[in-house]
Each structure stands twice: as C-alpha cells, then as structure tokens.
Amino acid sequence: MRRSMVILTSVLATGALTLTACGSRDDNGGGDSGDNGDSKTLTIGVDAPLSGENSTTGLGIQYGAQIAVDDANKNKLVPGVTFKLKALDDKAQPATGQSNATSITGDKTAVGAVGPLNSGVAQTMQQVFASANMVQISPANTNPELTQGKNWQTDKKRPYKTYFRTATTDELQGSFAAGYAYNKLKKKKVFVVDDKQTYGAGLAKIFAEQFKKVGGKVVQTDHVNTGTKDFGSLVTKIKNSGADLLYYGGQYDESALITKQLKDAGVKIPLFGGDGMFASTYIEAAGASSEGDLVTAIGVPADTLPAAKTFIETYKAKGYKGDYGAYGAYAYDATTAIIKAVKAAVDANDGKVPSDINALRSTVVDEVQKSDFEGLTGKVAFDQYGDTTNKQLTVYQVEKGEWKAVETGTAELN
Amino acid sequence: MTGTGPVEPVNSSETGESHDVIGVDSPRPTDRLRERWSALPPRTRTAALLALLTAAVATGVLLAPHHHRTERPEPAPWPANVTAWHYLGPVSPPNSPAFAGRFRFAVTVGKGPPVTLEVTGASSPGLRARALPEPDFTVRPGTPRRITVQISVSHCSGLPLNADLPFLDVTLRNTRAIQRHSFIFGGAFSRDLSELLHAACAPTSS
Fold first, then answer.
1. Region labeled Disordered — which residues (chain B) (predicted)?
2. Residues A47, A115: contact at Cβ < 8 Å?
3. Whole-model pTM?
C-alpha cells in the first residue's frame, strides 16, 4: 500500500507540473525566451517632447507606445518580427521634429512613426513622412488642417495620405467646450487667450467662434509667448474686462502659471482649456489655484475602459515617467495599428517580411487606412481624411486637487 | 495556476484524508470497496491506480482551458462607451410658424446589458427635447431601435439660428452606471434643426 502511495504521489506530482506548465504557456502567450529563430527587427519611431515644456504628456506618448511594442513582442503578434521603439525628443520645436522625421525615415528598419504631440510640430513632419511613403499616426494632434487641409471649414481636402491620428479634432473640441461653457456653466462673457502656436491659436479661434454662435460674448482676446513666466499685464487685462470665464488655447506649462497669477490677483474666474492642459502637472504647478478649472480632453476617462485597465497597471508598475492620462492609451492604439498593418503585410507575403523596406512601408500605409480593431480606447478606424472615427470627448474639472470627469460626449458628424 | 486545481485533493491524500476531501460520504460502499481493494494483488492495484490517475490528469488538462475562460466574467461596460446614435431624418418638415419638430434617430448598444436612455435636453437653454411617446426607452445590444425625438422652441432670445454641431443631452443607465452624455451631430441634423429654428424664430427670413 505504501508503495502504491509513492507511485500515486509521483504520478500526480508529474501531472501537476504538466498542468502548471500548460497554464503558464496560456498566460504568457508562448513566452519570450530565447526562441528567436530568424526573427527580423523592425523599428517604430516615436516623436514627442520628452524633455522640457510639454514633456509630461510627451512621455505619456513614448511609454504608451513602448507598452504596445512590448505587448506585441511578448504575444508574438507578428511571427518572425521583433519590434523596437526609437524615441526621439522634439522639445516641442517644429524644426527638431522635422529633423527627427528625417532620422526616422532614414532608418531602413523603420516601418512607421507615432507622434508628435504638437500640431505645429506635425506640420513640419508630414511632408518628410509623405516623401518616404511612411505612415505617421499622431495620438495627440487636434488641429483640423492636418487632415482636412487649410480650407477645412469649406472644402475638406486631405493633404497627406501617410498621416493619421487617433485623436479627434479641435472642430469638435472647441464646439464641445463652447457649448459646455455657455449652457452648463452659464458663462456669458469670455476672455480668450492663446499661445500663438498652431494648436493653441487654432483651438482658441474655434472656441471663440462657437461661443459667439451659441449666444456668448467674447469680451477680449490676447496672445502670449510660450516660455513666458510673468503674466502680470495679462492678468490686469482680464481683471478689467469683466469676463466671467478665461479660455486658454495652449499647453499646461503657461496656463498653470496664468491661473495661479490670476487667482493670486483676486480674479476668481475659472480657466478653461483644451487637451494640451490635461496633465497632472497643471494641478501640481498651479496648486489650489487650479480648483474649479476645466479642460476638454479627447476620449472618455481611461478608468471607464476595461481594456485600458492592464495598460494603466503596467504603466504604473514599470514606474514610467510622465502622464498616461491624456494620450498614453491613444499612443498604444496608434502603435498597435502600425503593428497590425505590418502583420497584414507579412500575411499577404506568405508569412515573410517583405525584403524591400519601401514596399513594406507602402503596404503599411494602405493597411493602416483599413484599420478596424478594438483598441484600448474603443474601435480603431480611420475615415477618408485619416481622422479617427472614434470621436469622443470629456470635460474634466479640477476637484479637490484632481481632474474629475464632469461631462462626456460622442460625435456622429455624417 | 489553472492546471493545479484538479490535483489539489492528492496532496490531502498523503495525510490519509483523501476520502474526506474528495467527498465520498457513504461509509458502506467505501468499506466494501476497501475490502475488495485489499484483496487485489499489489501489481493489479498499482496498474489500476496508474490508469485511474492518468485518466484524472487527462480530464484535468481537458477541463483546464474551460475553467480558465470562466474564471472571471467581464464587468458590464459603461453605457456611454457602447451606445451610439445615428440621425435618420425629420419626421415631417416644420410648418410655418412651427415651434416644434420631430426627428428620427437609430440608437444602438454595442454590447453588455440593455441601456435605458432619457433625452433631457438639446443644444441651447431655449430648446426642449424629449423622446416620444415615452421619455425613456431601453435598447438591447444587437437590436438597434428607431426613436423619435421632439424638439420644441421655448424661447427665441439668444437662440443661435444656425445650429453648428447640435447635440442632445441624454441620461444613460445600465447595470454598471448612470451617465450624462452628449450626442453631437453634424451634417443633416444640423441643417434640419436650423430649419426648425429659422421657422420658429425668424419666419420671414427663410
């Protein structure tokens, strides 16, 4: 009997190990240990401000893309291909962005790029990617001209077939903000300021137009320079204008200082801005002065998206810098769109990576246009202009030192 | 982790409590089985044990993936993330002077539990909006529902006559959450609503 028990224990122990091993393979999707075979490495470029101004949200883009690449490699999404990220810092400068675009397209292992953050930077990069017939997907650009041309309000024309974005446009963002300010906040007189940049000036213009259309009054407009620290004269103008709301088109770096100096001067009106302000750094920099301030941001809150849960946990567990909240999940989806396009190109080539990098890049552009999958942020697909079909927005307000979602919206513009 | 479940009673068997763990609770059959088992030659008993355990392990392997899939049901999605509106057109053109118009929409719920909706407002404080015939209605996933929304002009003062990107304010409710959400429209609904607003507030200008 005792001998039988020994055999029984051995057999069951073996069975247990076998089953445990089966479970591990399931969980890890085959694992990523040494079985490289004849794996080919392909590069995905990332361009964003990774240092200095705007870097909180820029780093969110970089690490959002990094997690997508890591997931694709771990799950062997494209058999025979290992993806590598090449992240370049544009410092929010158009000229640097253009130089980075040249660097990415010059890399003969590069199949596509994610970024940039700033619409003004994107304008200098688009032609470079178009010339190389390489796909570029921004998770953050919102200026309508980038996809719909200069005359987007009257005659939409797509300037570049290689440019896409997973963020919705300022046409929607500015209108949504104006409607919320007038109808929900009951604000009637607004002072509009922008930072003279493509994104900020464009958004502020759309907001002002829409605010007037819904019945509000724009009492005054003004402009600031990026990098400015002292907004004393602007605060005086706002104080004397009688405005009950300040709208700012630009990034969090300047707006955090403006709201602080405004409140310190006793002007207790909220500052309302766009997605460029949606960063934890805004609240940290402005402190209690930011209480009650508002932004519109692309998409719906990440914590309402079940698919984003693991992404957020990974971002935090890895200790990545920056803020994933604004664009991290959109960068993940943009990167995944490129990876899935590579997979389609490989599948169409009898399971082999096309040897001609130019042919591969061209196919990837076509396949990204055909994207149709469930990403972290919802359905990932692009319309005839390269704009995302996922047109969701959220109004956030600072409450007790945190951004809190107060209104969400979905657009159906056809 | 998924594969270790079926073999857990085995560890207990080493302590001589395997019958209790497995749950054979009738003493008589157990006693009879034990007597018969003891009467078998050792080699037969070993072979029988091996066959039994191989079958148990194989069963465990087959059941493991199924067990894994049913481990944790996916939580219900937030209603705003699965609900979509599509404008179909006006029920009938507004007569002049008209202070209300009826508009048709198709509402879909992509997945999850049914969503109950209530239209609470439209683009401007000067407009009132409600679904007909009942103010709230329920849409089930995979079954689009056509509904009519009546929009009436309560006052023209400050009302923009050209409705750029008009929206409907809707309360969405499912087993996960209650959310206030705006559905924003362009194109055809913008034109049709503007037509109503002109007819109601500037009848001579059209």
1. 1-36
2. yes
3. 0.77
